[in-house]
């Protein structure tokens, strides 16, 4: 564990660049096994995103940015004259890896825009840009941590959903970053949903917090109403995969249910996400493409080899209407009761 990171209760890094390629912590194996795998080609990075070795909206974007560096290295070595033309295929492969998190498309666009500045070998310019995207994400998370934790000043307990921490981002985390900062300011209780069917909460959030010595209590997804009714939680805090221009929020399946339950029980609901998660091209959440994953991720093992006799439907995100969100925290500032005007004001403010 890096000492500096350990001191800030932030020891986990899922993505790191090495001269040979991108090292990715395989999140499918956590918490049982901590295994890093080196990816030397863009196709491999796309597959790592598709298979959820790396997951979480900002982390997907960062991995894709480094995937573009690998693509440029490979294309330029094979055909220095025409690497710009050939790399478009790699951008498409990376873009096709997962559909919902807009950070993926945002990061690919940022990388593509750098092509214009390049003369000669593309890798140095693209690597610098990918590293800048990674570092800016961590910095942004720390700013959101401060802003969000100030709002939580009176909270004794919070509930979070999915994994939004260092594993899901460049480091520190969005919703979990706010929780990290709030713990330093005296937050007492963290409840984490298991987040079926992939169990990001049970496997990843609990593991990540354990690495940093932050105690958390796991609850079954179906326990959410009970915990919110109990009075032990003052805020539900979640991340986002895509936020529409009117403030509707796509996030891990189950977020919408939590927002409805929170409103009923007068518990406040906070969304924490970098500005890169906002998709101003979409008027509202109805336009967000929701990923549906394999039914085998959901079905009990004994049914998986028996196609046809049982069925399952596995949308892995849902859309929470903006009216259920009390506050949106971004690195550029906080929007209370987000709506179209609030999002417009945020986007037009200075970065
Ligand atoms: O399917 P996943 O694990 O990639 O989904 C992750 C989430 O839904 C997170 O809440 C979201 O990406 C925000 S993470 C900072």
What's the β-strand tally? 14
State the helical fraction.
25-40%
Low-confidence stretches: 1-6
* Count of helical stretches: 11
Relevant terms:
single chain; alpha/beta; Four Helix Bundle (Hemerythrin (Met), subunit A); Rossmann fold; seven-stranded mixed β-sheet; four-stranded mixed β-sheet; 39% helix; globular; disordered N terminus
Report on the architecture of this protein.
- This protein has 11 helices and 14 strands.
- With 351 residues, it is of the alpha/beta class.
- The chain folds into 2 domains: 134 residues, Four Helix Bundle (Hemerythrin (Met), subunit A) (Up-down Bundle); 207 residues, Rossmann fold, CATH 3.40.50.10470.
- Strands 6-5-4-7-10-13-14 form a 7-stranded mixed β-sheet, with helices on both faces.
- Helix 3 runs antiparallel to helix 6 and helix 5 runs antiparallel to helix 6.
- The protein is globular and about 65 Å long.
- Bound molecules: 5-S-methyl-1-O-phosphono-5-thio-D-ribulose (MRU).
- The site of 5-S-methyl-1-O-phosphono-5-thio-D-ribulose has 17 residues, from helix 3 and strand 9.
Write the layout of secondary structure elements.
Elements (H helix, E strand, L loop, with lengths): L2 H5 L7 E4 L2 E5 L10 E4 L2 H9 L6 H22 L4 H13 L6 H13 L8 H29 L5 E4 L14 H10 L4 E5 L6 H12 L5 E3 L4 H6 L5 E4 L3 E3 L4 E4 L2 H10 L3 E5 L5 E2 L37 E4 L6 E4 L2 E4 L3 H9 L3
Parallel strand pairs: 4-5, 4-7, 5-6, 7-10, 8-11, 10-13
Antiparallel strand pairs: 1-2, 2-3, 8-9, 9-12, 13-14
Helix pairs in contact: 2-3, 2-4, 3-4, 3-5, 3-6, 5-6, 6-7
The protein binds 5-S-methyl-1-O-phosphono-5-thio-D-ribulose.
The site of 5-S-methyl-1-O-phosphono-5-thio-D-ribulose (MRU) has 17 residues, from helix 3 and strand 9.
């Amino acid at each position: 564990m890096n000492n500096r990171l350990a001191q800030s209760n932030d020891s986990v890094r899922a993505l790191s660049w090495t001269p040979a390629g991108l090292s990715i912590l395989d999140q499918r194996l956590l918490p049982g096994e901590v295994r890093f795998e080196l990816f030397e080609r863009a196709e491999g990075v796309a597959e790592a995103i598709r298979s959820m070795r790396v997951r979480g909206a900002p982390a997907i974007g960062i991995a894709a940015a480094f995937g573009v560096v690998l693509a440029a290295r490979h294309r330029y070595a094979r055909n220095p004259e025409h690497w710009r033309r050939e790399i478009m295929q790699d951008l498409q492969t990376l873009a096709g890896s997962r559909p919902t998190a807009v950070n993926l498309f945002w990061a690919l666009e940022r990388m593509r825009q750098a092509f214009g500045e390049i003369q000669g070998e593309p890798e140095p310019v693209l690597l610098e840009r990918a590293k800048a995207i990674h570092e800016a994400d961590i910095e942004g998370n720390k700013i959101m941590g401060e802003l969000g934790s100030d709002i939580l000043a009176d909270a004794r307990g919070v509930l979070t959903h999915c994994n939004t921490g260092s594993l899901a981002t460049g480091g520190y985390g969005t919703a979990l970053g706010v929780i990290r900062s709030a713990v330093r300011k005296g937050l007492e209780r963290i409840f984490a949903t298991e987040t079926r069917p992939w169990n990001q909460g049970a496997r990843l959030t609990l593991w990540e917090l354990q690495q940093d010595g932050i105690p958390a209590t796991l609850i079954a997804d179906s326990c959410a109403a009970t915990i919110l009714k109990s009075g032990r939680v003052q805020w539900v805090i979640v991340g986002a995969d895509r936020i529409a221009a009117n403030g509707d929020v796509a996030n891990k399946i189950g977020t919408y249910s939590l927002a409805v339950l929170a409103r009923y029980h007068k518990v406040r609901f906070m969304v924490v996400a970098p500005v890169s998660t906002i998709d101003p091209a979409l008027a509202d959440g109805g336009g967000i493409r929701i990923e549906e994953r394999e039914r085998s991720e959901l079905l009990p093992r004994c049914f998986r080899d028996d196609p046809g006799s049982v069925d399952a439907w596995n949308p892995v995100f849902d859309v929470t209407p903006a009216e259920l969100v009390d506050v949106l925290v971004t690195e550029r500032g906080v929007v209370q009761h987000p709506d179209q005007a609030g999002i417009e004001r945020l986007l037009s403010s200075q970065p």
